[in-house]
Design goal:
Blueprint (H helix, E strand, L loop, with lengths): L2 E7 L3 H13 L2 E8 L9 H6 L2 E3 L12 E7 L6 H4 L2 E9 L7 E2 L2 H8 L3 E7 L9 E7 L7 H24 L15 E2 L3 H5 L1 E3 L6 H10 L8 E5 L2 E13 L10 H11 L1 E8 L2 E9 L2
Parallel strand pairs: 1-2, 1-4, 2-3, 4-5, 6-9, 10-11
Antiparallel strand pairs: 5-7, 7-8, 11-12, 12-14, 13-14
Helix pairs in contact: 1-5, 4-7
Length: 287
Amino acid sequence: MNLQTILFLDGSKTSQYLLNYIIKTKKFDIKKVIISPGCNKKFSDKIKKKFILIISNLKNKQPNLKKYDIGFSYYDFKVSQHILEKAKIGVVNFHPSFLPYNRGRHSVFWAINNQTPLGATSHWMNKKFDDGEIFLQKKIENVKFQNAKTLYNLQLRYLNSVIESTIKSIIIKKFIRKKQDSRKATYHFASDIKVASTLHTHQKIRNDRFFRLLQSTNFNNKTGIYLVNGKKKIFITSNYSIKKNNYKKKYDVDLKNIFEKINKSKKIRFTICVGKFKIIINSKVKK
């Protein structure tokens, strides 16, 4: 007998991959699909006809759910304890980070800057965000100088693999539960990233840490760092290329010099050295 299943989906490609893979297995009886507000158009007419799609943020009006066997989540709102308790086995969430590191938002940014592991995880949900027992996870090796966008897309590919492996285990009734190490846990809100990516020209920052900040914000033309000089603040987007180099020393980056040059010309090309590599950086002011 197939497991009675409920899904919580945010409409992203990953959430649709999760839904389609579950359908493909033919081992789950999907009772309802809870989707985030605004993502109704992201699901095909075929899906809409086959399943009951309930648009909800789970904050105000709670959907009327009966007891079910298991749930799966790739969702952008908190699933209440009341709903989680209706699952006989539990609800499995999929998160693009190597838990317990970087719970919450912008996991790639924090992993690069804090030099914590990158990867993908499935875990059992509880009343806290990304806190439940780990089902399965995969770690990304050899991160090196790859930019944030490349690493984020790599995490999503790893997450698809975690989705498949987790569901295959559940089909054979292999329910893995491994407690997270709370001593290593970190959690970040979306608003934290602006503070972490703001630099003042009077502060000292080492060359390697400065590069990690540029690396972690090299995602698209809307992501970057803030440079502040007194009352003047500018937003800078950057890209970079890597060459081999023999310079190995750590040194402080001259933020004031960078600010003055880019504030004047609106774009700048400069070089910093990290380990055995020379990094050529192209930055410009973004309005």
